[in-house]
Amino acid sequence: MSYKIAAASEDGEQINLNFGAAQRFLIYEVNEDGVWTLLEERSVPEGLEDVSGCGSQSCSGGGGGCHGSGAVSLKVDLLSDCRCIVCKKIGFPIQKQFEKKTISTFEISGNLEEVLDKITLYFYRSDHHQTLKGIAKQ
Amino acid sequence: MAKILDKQRYKCAMSAMQTVQAIERAIPVLHSGPGCAQKLSGSTGSSGYFSPNIYPCTSINERDVVFGGVKKLESTIRHSLEVIDADLYVVLTGCIPEIVGDNTEEVVSGFKEEEKPVIYALTAGFKGNNYKGHEQVIDALTEQYLEPSKIRIKGLVNIWADVPYQDEFWHGNYKELERLVKKLGLTPNIIFGYNRGIENIKKIPAAEFNLLISPWVGLTNMKKMEQKLGIPYLHYPTLPIGAFETSKFLREIGTYAGVPEEKVEAVISEEESSYYYYIERYADLFLETRVMSKQFTVVADAQYALGITKFLVNDLGLFPAKQFVVDDTPREYQEKVRSYFKDLNYIIEAEVSFDTDGFNIHNEIKAHDYHGYPLILGGHWEKEVAKQTNAHFLNVSWPVNERLIMNSYYAGYEGGLKLIEDIYSVAKTRFN
After folding, report:
1. CB of B233 within 8 A of CB of B212?
2. Are B275 and B345 in contact (CB under 8 A)?
3. For FRET with B94, which of B270, B358, B418, B428 sits at 20 to 30 Å CA-CA?
4. What SS3 state is found at A91?
């Protein structure tokens, strides 16, 4: 099955944006053989009121911890058809919101092409029940 | 077909964090997912200066699987050194970093110049259980920390016996073994438990010999130390419980270490006379407790299955039904361990089964005729089968759920008396 990856990149070459700062995401489509192509650029609609992902009470210093239980960020909705999000940094509550939708988040900076190659290889191997042995080195 | 492990008897190799915890002021630095650390941390008696909840952990996740976790490992070790005041830092790796190919050795070698020692053990769960993990930590000490000594201190003996926390009597057993060896005029050196720690680790290379009291756990460590540090070892496979085995144990050490025979015999006679004083005082109880079992079964690791079987046959005169060794003894040791169970007094031999499947074990117990109430010494899991078979049950092996063992012990002469107390305390609850 093909799937999509959302990347937060300013120039399409490097992953260099924090999730919160990204006003648009590059959406890549990955086909069944793990080959990826740029599908579209998806902009965050202007004036989109974003939330931090926290409920108003859970992160107000009560010490209860944050589990992304607040209102779902509209940015999360915007990317909910993707299998994973790649960005330089992403806040914990938003990660949790993606996690609830079984969307992985990868905090990584560097060359976009290399990162996509690695992630698609990882998903390809997982999906085909192949070993992940030595994958971090490849 | 895949097998389901029924009634777990041990944890995975990364539970070697317990071995590290047993060394005072040593701290495990975990390179694993947060779940591994959490699940393996629960054991009684592990609070204190360091406790599992503060173990530094890289908490690796999916991102680290794809891109590697070495940077996180490097920063976790560096910050541990900055923030935690320990004497020894032991990096333990879980399955994920080893599968995906993180080079832990390379990262750890970057800390060679630090003031405090940082070593690592590759304790991926797929490599084995925590008995193996324990061995890996000791090997790591030998390989990465200890250096051959130019001096040999006459009479200095390193003692290796129970796997800390897995064998819950480890505190007391080590203390009692230490006391006995000291009585022979030797100087025992143990690294686990109260008031020992790094200073005793440093003494290891100067020892005259290593004393391993265990059927198989630790044998590879002894060989490694012999090879690298030039320390010979005496392998005494049975944990001595009660007079018969303990006296034999003292004689064997005495002979090996060149302790004068008169001295050994004097120690034995002093200890035995106190031991038999109590046996004599309570002989009426042994003879008149009609509900006491005639046959027994031990379900434990090789250490306790063997030690207790020998004690119950040689000292208490009970007859062994089948014994179950549940520590997943490696195949290469099984025949040897089996032979130890054949070396009992009165030409008695105990049948032993190496099985980790609680379902099979319980079925075999149920099928056996114990000629009276069975006596079952085992893990918490055996409580169920003990109830079904109307047995006397004593929880001696992991998991230990319904008794607290702080510093009591079964090793030695007094340990034997303690085991008698525990067994009869159970038997006496039944109408006689």
Report:
1. yes
2. no
3. B358
4. coil
Burial class (CB in 10 A: 0-12, 13-18, 19+), B155: middle
Is A109 within 8 Å of chain B by CB? no
The DSSP symbol for B160 reads: E
CA dihedral defined by B17, B214, B322, B241, rounded to 10 degrees?
-110
CA angle A103, A106, A108 (to 5 degrees): 165
Q: Looking at the complex, report in whole angstroms how far the Cα of residue B110 sits from the nearest Cα belonging to chain A.
A: 19
- Give, as one character, the DSSP assignment of residue B428: T
Which member of B63, B65, B69 has the closest CB to residue A132?
A: B65
**Single-letter amino acid code for the residue at B360:** N
Euclidean distance between CA atoms B431 and B392, whole angstroms:
12
**pLDDT of A63-117, one tens digit each?**
444 555 566 688 899 999 999 999 999 999 999 999 999 999 999 999 999 999 9
- Please say whether the beta carbons of A14 and A109 come within 8 A: yes
Residues of A in contact with B69 (CB under 8 A): 136
Q: Which residues lie closer than 8 Å to B124 by C-beta, 6 or more apart?
A: B13, B14, B93, B94, B95, B97, B98, B99
Among partner residues A104, A108, A133, which is closest to B99 by beta-carbon distance?
A: A133
The model's pTM is 0.91
- A132 vs B contacts (CB less than 8 Å): 65, 99-100
Q: Which DSSP category does B16 fall into?
A: G
Give how far the C-alpha of residue B375 lies from the chain's centroid of Cα atoms, to the nearest Å: 23
CA of B69: which chain A residue's CA is closest? A136
Side-chain half-sphere of B328: how many Cα atoms within 13 Å?
16
CB B117 within 8 A of CB B39: no
CB B110 within 8 A of CB B81: no
Find, among B77, B76, B81, B73, the residue nearest to B116 by Cα: B81
What does the alpha-carbon distance between residue B283 and residue B255 come to, in Å, rounded to a whole number?
33
**Contacts with A115 from chain B: Cβ below 8 Å:** 67
Residue B120 pairs with which residues in a beta bridge?
B91
First to last CA, chain A: 24
pLDDT digits 0-9 by tens, B286-322: 989 889 999 999 999 999 999 999 999 999 999 999 9
Distances (CA, A) of A35 to A4, A9, B191, B247: 11, 20, 55, 73
What's chain B's length in residues? Answer: 432
B432: buried, middle or exposed (CB in 10 Å: 19+, 13-18, 0-12)? exposed
Q: What are phi and psi of B234, to 5 degrees?
A: -110, 120
The complex's ipTM works out to 0.82
Bridge pairing between strands A3-7 and A24-30: antiparallel
Decide if A123 contacts A3 (C-beta within 8 A): yes
Q: A112 near A7, Cβ under 8 Å?
A: yes
Q: Under an 8 A CB cutoff, do A119 and B69 touch?
A: no
Mean pLDDT for B170-190 is 98
Q: How far apart are CA A53 and CA A68, in angstroms?
A: 5
Interface check for A135 against chain B (CB to CB < 8 A): the answer is yes
Q: Tell me the chain B residues in contact with residue A15 when contact means C-beta distances shorter than 8 Å.
A: none
Q: Is the CB of residue B54 less than 8 Å from the CB of residue B86?
A: no
